[in-house]
Design brief:
Residues 121-172 form the RNA polymerase sigma factor 70 region 4 type domain. The chain is built from seven helices and no strands. By secondary structure, it is mainly alpha-helical. The relative contact order is 0.10.
Length: 183
């Protein structure tokens, strides 16, 4: 085979389709914002979380091997950021009470709409849950993800997701936050 060039191409599994980060963000930004709002229950905090998650994703975009996994990858980054945020907020609220700094800030005016008292009560009950239970519940019942997608987004096992969902449902039922047909 003298005079022929040999090209060493990687196997088909190793060849990844290139990531068009701008297209991925454009296609997923609205869903990410909706998810963030359901996780933290505040519009401004949700926008901040999405922006920081997208900044993290941009820095790590070269680690994504398969562009088809992009939406789940972005959700995982956002959920991870939101869980850290929820933990810090819970610690701050406890410190505020201990130090008697006053009540937590009131919800934004956009959250006040007719018939919202039940929704706000549900939100308060959901915020009392541990971060992983609240996240699993939000992803399952508010975002409509299946157990495998939740496990992937939270980076935990499917069985652990089921445990978090069960415990979240039990606590929400005990707090009378779920009325009528419950999931």
């Amino acid at each position: 085979m003298k005079g022929t060039a040999v090209i060493n191409e990687p196997p088909m599994e190793e060849r990844a389709t290139p990531l068009d980060f701008d297209a991925l963000v454009e296609g997923e930004q609205a869903a990410l914002l909706r998810l963030a709002r359901r996780l933290v229950w505040d519009g401004e905090e949700a926008r901040d979380l999405v922006q920081s998650a997208l900044a993290d994703a941009y820095e790590k975009r070269h680690t994504l091997r398969d562009s088809k996994a992009g939406p789940a990858w972005l959700r995982r980054i956002l959920v991870s950021r939101a869980m850290g945020h929820l933990r810090r907020r819970r610690v701050w609220n406890v410190l505020r009470e201990v130090l008697e700094l006053g009540p937590a800030p009131q919800p934004s005016p956009e959250e006040h709409f007719a018939g919202a008292e039940r929704w706000r009560a549900f939100g308060r009950a959901l915020r009392t849950l541990p971060a992983q239970q609240a996240t699993a519940f939000s992803l399952r019942y508010l975002e409509g993800l299946d157990l495998d997608a939740i496990a992937d987004a939270m980076n935990i096992g499917r069985g652990t997701v089921r445990i978090h969902l069960y415990r979240a449902l039990q606590k929400l039922k005990a707090a009378d936050a779920l009325q009528g047909d419950t999931p």
